[in-house]
Amino acid sequence: MKNKKTKVTYLCQQCGYEAAQWLGKCPSCGAWNSFTEEKFSAPAKGQAVASRQLTGFSSEVVKLKDIASGDFKRYATNIKEFDNMIGGGVVPGSLILLGGAPGIGKSTLMLHVANALSSSGTVLYISGEESLAQVKARAERLNVKKDNIFLASETNLQNIVDAINKIEPKFLVVDSIQTTYHPELSSAPGTVGQVRETAAEFLRIAKSKNITVFLLGHVTKEGDLAGPRVLEHIVDTVLYFENERQHTYRILRSYKNRFGPTSEIGIFEMGQTGLSEVSNPSLIFLGERASGVPGNIVTVSVEGTRPILLEVQALSARTNFQIPRRMVAGYDTNRITILIAVLENRLNLPLEMQDIFVNVAGGVKIKETSLDLAAAGAIVSAHAGFICPKDLVAFGEVGLAGEVRSVAFCAERLAEAEKLGFKKAIVPKGNLKNLSYKGKIEIFGADSADAAIKFLRNQ
Predict the structure, then answer these.
(1) Does the keyword field hold Metal-binding (predicted)?
(2) Which end of the chain has fewer CB atoms within 10 angstroms, the N or the C?
(3) 103 is in an annotated binding site
(4) Superfamily of domain 75-279
């Protein structure tokens, strides 16, 4: 009998690129010092390749019109923030990846979700990082006491598959994918090969047995999900806690969802009894607004389909360095740099020797460009020393020529602002055409940043 040969390869831990030798920079993703050595057994010449699959998943070839679709049923968790974010509930047979920084609440949220889903079927919770007693202690603190939640402390994928075959759960939680290892691979848990193979196995389990599988994942120091990016392509849904654990409020965002909307967010508050829903985040983010201070203005951002009112803060100070600092929290730093250049060139503001600091209060990270106009107004207010009206909101995208461009969901933004008692709004002039909003807010349509700032100064 021929012996197996050991093959040595080098894999990029960021994207999974394979090389025959160690490389300082990955040719695929450009990451530095990301290659690690991995060894696995390869069959000798003439010997059949052994399959690493533990679960079979295949079907016959049939015509599309002959397939009975049935009802596309979802299982609601009755956690409104979670259900709305993923499209109304979890889909049977789906593979969901939940990522976030250590200690931010991934395991806590999963115990809440497991407790809610246990009303619809058996839940198997696999913990690869904590003992059964530790998970039990957290469950008691969170008041999770359902009878059909099963626990196991295991990292061996073969043993996990055996437990699944024995319990036959409807829902499976794996905490975490980086601690789970395939027994046929010699590489360490958490490496590219292990994460790729174990995730593929859980995908086969989800599809072949119609089990909803939740995979919890670690993040790197850069804030990205640890492991190869192919993991994000394997799963059906990617959920990510995008802020740090130091914040009281946890923001969970959907980055990918094959069965629902993307870019939706769920907002939770961490307390002694776990994560509780925040039904009206606008009130939370505006609850501690500073009054009578220049550099503060309120904007309306749309996250997915939900409008949220946020406070944009800016501070301008004379620099002590040859190159002024531009520090931003909660928004794209490059966008703020562009806005400062527009204010210098189109509005003739002397900002070249000013340190500029911009912050979106509450720890929210805004990705849409509708915050441009509010950020520009906050910077000018901080620099000139005038106070923005407390009952005014501003939103719109600012172009390089200083023009204010239209944004989506203008009517919904204005309606949300009116609910919270705002009286005035600066919006893009292009949005006034065919505007469906018929509320009481006084609207000023700005076609340029200069016009918007002049209106802001005169309030």
Answers:
(1) yes
(2) N
(3) yes
(4) P-loop containing nucleotide triphosphate hydrolases (3.40.50.300)
